[in-house]
Design goal:
- This protein has 154 residues and is of the alpha+beta class.
- Helix content is 55%, strand content 20%.
- The protein has 4 helices and 4 strands; from the N terminus they run H-H-E-E-H-E-E-H.
- The protein has a 4-stranded antiparallel β-sheet, with helices on one face.
- Strand 1 and strand 2 form a beta hairpin.
- Helix 1 crosses helix 2 and helix 3 runs antiparallel to helix 4.
């Protein structure tokens, strides 16, 4: 049989876990639960936004060469940058990395696949003075310029 103290300790442990997952700084139970609820709402909004981007991409895949999907999220002192394209373009990885360099964005970690499709996941940052929108626009511009160069060479 579980004692009252063990139940209380288990509940406290679970609340602390919930607090850490939701990045809450709350101390009492009610505030932790409220912060968790807000965090869930933020996640739901992200899901809606990502579903809209997917739907938008599905609509644009009817064109001959759709532009890649670019998402940029602020994390800590840096950014998580994802670039995905159904079709790989020659020089796309170099163009995106050059855009990072022009911004002064240090790439801390990167994962890329340039086979038939193109996928790049990058973590970059440290002491930045611009926001995620600036990074996204720079990456999109690099993609457009790479796309126009590859169209000219065809």
């Amino acid at each position: 049989m579980v004692s009252r103290e063990q139940k209380k300790a288990g509940l406290h442990e679970k609340l602390q876990l919930l607090r850490s997952i939701t990045h809450s700084h709350a101390v009492n139970k009610t505030s932790i639960v409220i912060d968790a609820s807000r965090y869930i709402q933020e996640l739901k909004q992200k899901v809606v936004r990502l579903n809209q981007e997917i739907a938008c991409m599905q609509n644009t895949t009817k064109s001959v060469t759709p532009l890649p999907t670019v998402t940029v999220e602020s994390i800590g002192d840096g950014f998580l940058i994802n670039v995905f394209s159904v079709k790989n373009m020659p020089g796309l990885l170099v163009s995106v990395l050059e855009a990072f360099e022009e911004l002064g964005l240090n790439v801390l970690q990167a994962r890329a696949s340039c086979a038939d499709s193109f996928y790049l996941e990058t973590v970059g940052g440290e002491n930045l003075v611009f926001d995620a929108h600036v990074v996204k626009q720079a990456v999109i511009q690099a993609i457009k310029s790479c796309s126009s160069q590859s169209d000219e060479s065809d």
